[in-house]
Design brief:
With 854 residues, this protein is mainly β. Helix content is 2%, strand content 46%. Strands 32, 35, 37, 38, 39 and 41 form a 6-stranded mixed β-sheet that branches.
Length: 854
Amino acid sequence: MSHRRLSLRSGALVILSALLCSAPALAQGASATPAQIETSAGILPVAGRALGGSAPTAGAPLAVGAPIRAQAPAIALVPGAAPDLLPGPPTDPGGSGSGPLGGGLVVQDNFPVQPSGAAIQELTNPTAALFRDTAFATGERFAALSLSSGQSWMHVDPTQVLSPRDGGFAGNQSTLFLEGDDQTGAMIWSLQYAYSSITQSNAVRIVVSRGRSNLRTLQFHYYDLVPSFFGLGSGTWFDAPQIARSSSWLYVAMNRYDDLGRFVGTAVIRLALADLLAGRPAAFAVATTPAREPGSLRLCDGATTTMYYGTHTSSLFGAPMIRIFAWDDATTSTAPTVSDQPISAWYTGTSTAPGPDGRDWLGADDHRILGAYFASGALSFLWGSNAGGPFAMPFVRIVGFYPSAGYALAGEASVWNPSIAFAYPSVAVNARGDVGGTMALGGGGYHPSSIAWVVDAQSGWGPLTNVLLALGARGPVANAWSASASAARHPLHANSYVGTGHALDAAGNSVPRYTWFGRQNDLPAPATVSIDSWPPTGVPIAVDVPDRNGAQSGNTPFARTYSPEQGFTLSAPAQATSGGVRYDFERWYWNGVSQPIAARDLVVTNLLGANGSFFTAGYERVRHTLTVTSTPTSGAVFFLAPSDDLGRSGGTASATIVYQDGAPFRITANIVHNGALFDRWIVDGVPQPPGPISLDWVARDAHQLVMAYQVPVCGGFTSYGQSCGPFGAGRYRHVASSSRTPCGPFYNEWASFDVEWAVGSSFGSLAIGFSNTSWLGIPLPFAVPNMSGCSLYTDMISFLSFSTDALGRGSVPILIPFDRSLAGLSFYTQCFVVTPFPTLQISNGIETRIGGFR
């Protein structure tokens, strides 16, 4: 967006630039006297985490106060002539003019960034970063994620994936990729939160997503830069962060304002990259300047062991200069050094360059430095100049210095055209030390549009080698334009660039663009892949990522074209029919190489940038999968004859076996499993005859084969209580036994329930019950009235009679039913024998636990 301030009635602070702030390019009356810098250092805690769209784990409650309008002082620069190459004639712009189609530059990708659900403003300030095949883009009020190298995008709402704070999300987003592989690379995302009069603060949030899979699933951790944390006091707020990295640090440059919106200075905070990547509290250092010093500091791209940044200033006599800061990476370096360097005069004031519809787009350009880079030993700065002198239209100015030679001038240049205005440059350094970026142009016959450009050994600044990215169809309603496009080195093809631009369509909608561009020799050929099936054809194959042309899934055979290093997944159906014949999926073949059996999803992590990748879904006639399990516990061993189609001669339940349709086979169960005895096979829920351990079967469909085992449960007898009554009560007793020892009795077996030392030649009853704690609501044991020492021990549901012989012995045989559900259950018995008195002999109780297999 432009650098005009827009107050938000909703309580958000302001709409802000994504890379630069709206502080003055030079505070009124600033001079070339030594800069006043204050520094501090410490440890910044992790503020929170966002895990794949789940609720954020930290964040202050939203506290919205009254909006504040930032007050930008006038720029104190002296206009003058701007020769293109010193000491160019004052009446001649020098060099060669640049047009919108300079030639020699190739755009590999140029995709719109319009995710569904995103609010894309007219001044959208697009930025983007690429992580192999995963791109992350931002606009003024939205973010977006692409899993397809920029071809398609999904909306990422910052207010939903991150916790709120202060006055709420306020825009000013930036992106940066930290190079590495799929595990070590990281994406940095910065965004600003509005000032709140309630919290008397705002924050700049630094979001880190490390690893490709984390970025693709929106898993972040983040740090909040709050003015008071750095000792800058309450009532102070940061504006419009810009981020860049050196070898060891992430730098964040911001202007500072008070609660009345007055500019009070700058802050540059650096955070240790190693800490950010590890997700731990980060070491930091901060360097601030006061209100009388110039603001709008621009960090450079391409920094290694020293971060350079700069801004406009002027001498005591008004001559234009650039104030250059240099901050060494060494942890002992507590403050940057400062040097003011003179440059040729250029033009300030309000720029104008209306397009064919009369709408202007440059009225808000305050001429601050928008691009900076360090390459081949030279430090250079780019900004937009107003028209003036020999320049009929606003133009972009470039000036460079050699830091190692005391900032000796490396050269000056301009990007200009007599009938077209150039403005709002972005710049990045490639691996060779060349530079490229994006830029806006408009005026005359052009609505505001975007170009990509390069400067290298083949061509310099004039004329500028460029190509049109976004051709505008109308001008903005506001007299302003997006000031913050972005450019970055491609993370894998490091001599090419990724960047952003935008233009308005005929309806006035802003269309941000994501682009990959460079010299032809620096760009790999797109990867064309062929997808087929065999022996059936016409098989529907699902592809999860659209190709460069927007094509995705298809019926075999078909081809798709992808950006190199694009990852995607091919998914084949489990069955296919061709010519009336049914086929089952077997495996994928990649360039003829067999992939894992039965894996219908083929994950292609990298195309390696090569043509000729052939993917074939292999099928065979229908094979039936049978599931083999065991009960009541898993893990039973089985044997197959012949081996199944996967070459397995047996296995351990639970398992699957595979046979072609109609194939006969025998499956044999192990007779004993974990002490349990094999009982029978159960097929699809139907019990087979008990006994045979082998099952002969013919594969006709999918089946469930269950090996049923009987788990032994021991039975037993337990005597409790005591006998009572006349005639030998001390010896009279109730006993029980079974033919199985130990563990008897089992179901389907006889048990004998006896009395000993009872009254001879008498009769009695065996009481049988199922509780020894309660009978008809009466607690057991129950003391029998008037019979001292006698108790009832069972609930007496049933009675069986018996007689005693002359020796007082009696017996009741009982056949326990054949019912496996009885195993482990108990019943209770007690004997009653009639005596001559008459009275009763009452026995002790016996608990009988039924054994068996279950």
